[in-house]
Hints:
The complex is a heterodimer. By secondary structure, chain A is α+β, with helices and mostly antiparallel strands. Chain A has helices spanning 57-69, 167-184, 224-243, 289-296, 303-313, 318-325, 328-340, 344-362, 373-384, 390-403, 409-415, 424-437, 439-446, 452-463, 470-482; strands at 7-18, 55-56, 73-74, 77-78, 81-84, 94-97, 104-105, 108-112, 118-130, 134-136, 143-147, 154-160, 196-206, 216-219, 251-256, 261-266, 277-278, 285-286. In chain A, helix 5 (303-313) packs antiparallel against helix 6 (318-325) and helix 14 (452-463) packs across helix 15 (470-482). Chain A is elongated. The model of chain A has no long low-confidence stretch (mean pLDDT 91). Chain B is mainly α. Chain B has a domain at 1-44: Glu-tRNAGln amidotransferase C subunit, N-terminal domain (Histone, subunit A). Chain B contains three helices and two strands, in the order ααβαβ. The mean pLDDT of chain B is 89. The interface between A and B is large, with 51 and 39 residues.
Amino acid sequence: MSAYDLYEPVIGLEVHIQLNTQSKAFSSDSASYGADPNTQVSPITLGHPGTLPRFNEQTLEYAVLLGLATKSQIREWNEFARKNYFYADLPKGYQITQHTTPICTGGQIHFRLEDGSERVVNLTRIHMEEDAGKSMHDQDIYDSLVDLNRCGVPLLEIVSEPDIRSAQEAYLYLTEIRKLVRYLGICDGNMEEGSLRCDANISVRKKGEAKFGTKVEVKNMNSFNNVRRAIEHEIIRQIDLLESGQSFTSETRSFNAENGTTFALRSKEEANDYRYFPEPDLQPVVVNEAYISQIATMMPPLPHELYARYTKEWGLSDFDARNLTDDKSIALYFNELSQLVSTAKSAANWMMGPVKSWLNQEAKSLNEFPMSPSKLAELIALVESGKVSHSVAAQRLFPELILQPKANPQSLAESLNLIMDSDEEGLKAMVDEILAAWPEKVAEFKAGKKGVLGLFMGELMKKSKGKADPKTATQLFNNALNA
Amino acid sequence: MQIDKETVRKLAHLARLEFDENSAETMVNDMNRMLDFVAKLDAIDVSQVEPLIYMNEDVNVWRKDEVINTITHEEALKNAPKKDTDFFRVPKVIEK
């Protein structure tokens, strides 16, 4: 047993999600990403004297939606606070945030580990706040360049309890949050573009120990993989220090993606003192029951609910259910398709097979898939009624329908001459012809080499251009050979 | 509360301001005078009074999520002491 096995990591994550509102949290300038620098700013964003912020109702709607989705308690009386600090990308000198009255408390995030077992991470709080602008330090020798387009864009900060026990769990938790906010349609969840950001609080303690160890905060992990790498590295670093008898202080460290290590960011001497106080420029926000019920009606089906339905009610495997709920548009399409076909399993097979292969091949998302669920259901029905074989449907009719998504699958199959031949008379003639052409194989079959049936079937498929109904054909061969 | 040079130094750091020794001395005196003035309130018993944060009792003063651009890019940069065509320019601040 190595020394590392004696320790247990204790991890809590702070996740910031940028809300995809049209305008900013407290002013009407555009909140969209990627515009030319400093073109989406207003006197409020720039912190000019005499300006007053005004709250964007969409921010609240999204906060309550996320609160309901995580089964959080939604606070009735909400106030904003000023978090004071001096930095060039925050011109007014304070960030508007919620300090003592976070909109949500005590929610939960459910996700699945690789072995299919469920994990629950408790949330301390979710609160509303505004983003800061962006500073660039590497583009000029003497100056830092500041772009304030992002300044004032609404954020929700999701703070977890220290419930996470490994880098992999942190990764899965974060993936679940991204999936959730995408289902809710409140954030695009793009970590590389910074619309989803994550800081980790990490400590280690001897297994069985109740007290937490010294906590280190790690920042600047700008991809899902980097979150995992940074936490893995930090756990090892802390255990190594403790095992060699060294202590360390609570500090903030930054992740260096180039070599996978962390380095100390702020020394204690410069510790921040945010001097929080209530924001008098924004009136309190009161969230009543009626408002919450109204938001609840906008709730889409959520991934873990769909997963439960697919596995428990519809009998799909863990693998199928995971894949079908990973992406909201795929889940919704599958949901609709399942209502239209005889079994969820056949709908799942078509989604996981032909549909996903097409999406992968074309590098497209499901929104660009031309066939409606009802069209695909008609195609599946053709297979299930035995009119078209599965392989012909998947390999020939399916691509044809993608080109002509309005066509009727059955007429299309007829015009392409793909309707399966289960006409016994016609098939019988072909079967006899084949057996007559391969006397030595017939002898082998009769001597017990049943595998040659495959060869006969292959010949029949060639002759019938893939249209022979395999069931009828097998029957016919067996009858003839065992006669 | 008594303001001393250490308090002034700390506040100056938080506000990213610089003082020479003499100005710091003046600052200590000024701030102490301000605090003495406000300290008159200590004479009143406010233990039963709710803190006043808001100037009226309105709640839920919201706006619709609509984009209204009020100033141009040029106007935004106009008052900046240092700028280029695109950006505000500030003395280099590096977090490492």
